[in-house]
Amino acid sequence: MWQTLKKFYNRLSLIVLAIVLIFFFFFAIFTFIIEGSKGSLDPITFVSLAAVILSFPGIVNTITDEYIPKKKTYKLSSNCPKCKHLIRMDMREE
């Protein structure tokens, strides 16, 4: 039961986070368009809005890696100290 509850909470938080990020992205674009149409776009406002819009894919990628981590595979090979045979091990994250 706890696993089901944990999966539900993870999915719900991921959906809420995606909705908030999409809303934030559209808010930044609309602010950029409205300020530009007024003709009073300050250089600092322009630079900050452009930085937010251009960094959005990186923010999404970081959050995706945080919520859905990729499982790593570790490979190890070594010689046995007594018999000198090559020992290979493959390990995966669970």
Order of strands, main sheet, comes to 1-2
Q: Which word captures the global form?
A: elongated
Q: What class would the helix/strand composition place it in?
A: alpha+beta
Distance N to C terminus: 20 Å
Integer count of domains: 1
Can you walk through the features of this model?
- The chain is an alpha+beta fold.
- The chain has one domain (2-92).
- It is 66% helix and 15% strand.
- It has 2 helices and 2 strands; from the N terminus they run ααββ.
- The chain has helices at residues 2-38, 43-67; strands at residues 73-79, 86-92.
- A two-stranded antiparallel ribbon has the order 1-2.
- The model has no long low-confidence stretch (mean pLDDT 80).
Structure summary:
This protein has 94 residues and is an alpha+beta fold. It has helices spanning 2-38, 43-67; strands spanning 73-79, 86-92.
Write the layout of secondary structure elements.
Layout: H1 2-38, H2 43-67, E1 73-79, E2 86-92
Antiparallel strand pairs: 1-2
Helix pairs in contact: 1-2
